[in-house]
Design brief:
With 157 residues, the chain is an alpha/beta fold. Helix content is 38%, strand content 15%.
């Protein structure tokens, strides 16, 4: 595993997206913007390549699938960027999965969840995440990739 820019690290970063994120670009553009999940994926792949990472980009509307992917990431990933969508605010199963894995998880949300409905103010994931980024739109994913790259470099020393 090499941590310098321009050299790919051996393990990918898993970028996991939860329910309704497949509807980006159509769903509540005033909240989430007009970009699609495919737009975010393309930008993440470009940024990852520039900083020496590879990504495994996935989306599901099913809670158990996210749990399975988190368990898979523990053995096969450098870290996880997780936008669990609404499951952030409801899922003890995702909390348990994040707690159970050793790789760092950066929680990401496109919108400013602290400025939205009261139910979105609480995250079951945040207390166990390596970091949390919200309210910065797609840029949050890119910052999460940078953070995981830096974390890998710090732990490799």
């Amino acid at each position: 595993m090499v941590c310098e820019y321009g050299q790919a690290m051996a393990l990918p970063v898993y970028i996991l997206n939860g329910p309704n994120l497949n509807s980006l670009g159509l769903r509540e553009p005033a909240v989430y913007g007009r970009y699609t999940l495919a737009d975010i994926e393309a930008t993440c792949r470009t940024t990852a390549e520039q900083i020496g990472l590879s990504v495994e980009f996935r989306q599901t509307n099913h809670e158990g699938v996210l749990v399975d992917w988190l368990h898979e990431a523990d053995a096969q990933a450098l870290g996880v960027v997780l936008n669990a969508g609404a499951y952030t605010h409801t899922s003890l199963a995702l909390q348990d999965a994040v707690r159970a894995i050793a790789v760092p998880v950066v929680e990401v949300h496109l919108s400013n969840i602290a400025a939205r409905e009261a139910i979105r103010h609480h995250s079951f994931i945040s207390p166990f995440a390596a970091g949390v980024i919200f309210g910065l739109g797609p840029r949050g994913y890119l910052l999460a990739l940078e953070a995981l790259r830096a974390h890998a470099a710090d732990t490799a020393e």
